[in-house]
Amino acid sequence: MSVLVFFIVILFAFYLFYKTKYFRTSRPVEKKWLSAKSNIALGLFVFLFGINHLFFISQTTVTLIVSIIFIVYGGIFTWVGFKKYKHYLPYAEEEAAIEKRKRLAQGRQA
């Protein structure tokens, strides 16, 4: 089950990476798109954390309930993040293309 721990650490790193990119960008649609990507990473992190607790922690009723809550919450968070990601992807691509055209136009004028 060390594979689960590996994926949990990787997903948390992705979450931090996308949140950092979110705070560093100035484009509004790209912010929403990056937020959706970080939602997916956080949802998968919580989901796998719940599954991990089912295997490694002593089985008590409280542990089982908390693990199920984590699994359901992580699944919902991932699903909502994926829906947002699909929605904002074309707008983010369009926004990036417009930004690129602006930079090219400024370069030609200089």
From TrEMBL:
Keywords: Membrane, Transmembrane, Transmembrane helix. InterPro entries: YtpI (IPR025618). It comes from the Bacteria. It holds the Pfam family YtpI. The chain crosses the membrane at residues 6-24, 36-56, 62-82. This is YtpI family protein. It comes from Neobacillus driksii.
